[in-house]
Amino acid sequence: MSVELNSKTAEVKRDSCTLMAPDDRSKYGWLPQIPVWWIGAAAVCLGFLLLLVILGLVAQIGLMECENLVYNLTKDRDALRDERDQLKRNSSSLKKELDVLQSQYKAVAASRDKLQEDVRRLNHSKTERICYQGWIKFNNKCYYASDKGAAKTWEESRKDCLQRRADLVIITTKDELVFVSKFYSRTWIGLSDMQQENKWRWVDGSDLEGRGFWQSGEPNNVGNEDCVELSNPNGEWNDMPCENEIPWMCED
Ligand SMILES: [Ca+2]
Ligand SMILES: [Ca+2]
Ligand SMILES: [Ca+2]
């Protein structure tokens, strides 16, 4: 259909409006009439294709990311394996070092034990007393018993001991009492109350502690008895005049 428009009269000449036959349409360049449903279907297809393309792209990107992830994981796994192998090697090396250290420790401990034993022996030999000739050793102390037949006052007896760089014996134990009593039936010991009556003091200046080993009824100070003898049969003590002359015993 064509329409002629007169601009002057603004009228449309209906006569000029004629319908063209279908065969004439191609002659004038007209496209065939496209059904609406076909356009819709094409749009749906295009949309579907577009969706497929997008999905394909997404899948491609996802695949690449997966590949990257697998690559990174494989790399990390290989690194961890290397680290594990290195740790194994380190562990083996440390175990060897530990064995060496344990062996060295045993050797040092054995050496220490030997040294301790040597020190013990040295200390023992250092403290072990050696007595002069003529002296008797008892409980690591040295004793000198006066010569047979010799007898002196208490003061002279003490003087003899001092000249021997010793002093009259000090009895501190029952064992020592028994040991000293074996030599003579009567023996001066280093105990007296000559400075103060009934205050018994040893020659080293110490006071008599405890009850001592007095015979029954002693000390009785009969006739001013200020010096102590040890007398048999059981070696117990008796005070008697210091001027009496009997054997004596020195202790160093
Ligand atoms: Ca003693
Ligand atoms: Ca007395
Ligand atoms: Ca007496």
TrEMBL record:
Entry coiled-coil feature ranges: 70-118
GO molecular function, a single term: carbohydrate binding
Spans traversing the lipid bilayer: 36-59
InterPro entries hit by this protein: C-type_lectin-like, C-type_lectin-like/link_sf, C-type_lectin/snaclec_domain, C-type_lectin_CS, CD209-like_CTLD, CTDL_fold
Record bears the keyword Oxidoreductase: no
CDD domains, sorted: CLECT_DC-SIGN_like (cd03590)
Keywords: Coiled coil, Disulfide bond, Lectin, Membrane, Transmembrane, Transmembrane helix
Xref: SUPFAM superfamilies: C-type lectin-like (SSF56436)
Domain C-type lectin: from-to ranges: 138-251
Name the UniProt record assigns to this protein: C-type lectin domain-containing protein
Protein's organism: Lates calcarifer
